[in-house]
Amino acid sequence: QSVLTQPPSVSGAPGQGVTISCSGSTSNIGAGYDVHWYQQLPGTAPKLLIYANSNRPSGVPDRFSGSKSGTSASLAITGLQAEDEGDYYCHSYDGSLRGYVFGTGTKVTVL
Amino acid sequence: EVQLVESGGDLVQPGGSLRLSCAASGFTFSSHYMHWVRQAPGKGLVWVSRISDDGTGTMYTDSVKGRFTISRDNAKNTLYLQMNSLRAEDTAFYYCARETGGHHDDFDYWGQGTLVTVSS
Prior knowledge:
The complex is a heterodimer of chains A (111) and B (120).
Chain A lengths: L8 E4 L5 E6 L12 E5 L6 E4 L13 E6 L2 E6 L8 E9 L4 E4 L3 E5 L1
Parallel strand pairs in A: 1-9
Antiparallel strand pairs in A: 2-6, 3-4, 3-7, 5-6, 7-8, 7-9
Chain B lengths: L2 E5 L3 E2 L5 E8 L8 E6 L5 E7 L6 E3 L7 E6 L4 E6 L8 E10 L2 E7 L3 E5 L2
Parallel strand pairs in B: 2-11
Antiparallel strand pairs in B: 1-3, 3-8, 4-5, 4-9, 5-6, 7-8, 9-10, 9-11
């Protein structure tokens, strides 16, 4: 089981905003390791959405933003669009496990 | 254009072996750490293994230690995952991913995945 916990699902109407939390511990997020976020649309490979806690790769809309505080991180999506429907995963390094870990994943539904 | 193309996925019996390949193009392969990530059908992402840019350093998740071996051939721009003693719980799509580098350990490019099915 993953050491990074996310809500199983979040939903919002088009144009609204949602926030996805990623809860870790003092051996991963709280130890200062970076948190990254990935978007996985149905039937496709994951795509990097946010790197190093709050940075967007080129081409990612500014509707997506990331933050980190203590042992948790968050991904915010504003102005929801139908094309945002999919699964979202946080990702970090765990010093106790000496390996990388992904969050449990959150399904975003646009109502 | 960066491309990662996995191959080698197949149906294999429990206890069997399989070798996955990931052909890289569009970037200097020998300059990047590489990873394997798997995803059981309908389930979440699980990190499997990492190899350093020169191939001398490797890491594995506990569930595959002693059974899987990651390697690379920088002359052929290819990443490998040798999987032995396969179990039903190893059934998954296997993705190769490039680590960005430069003090950033995010995975900025992913392949399309190859399906490994372990079943009798």
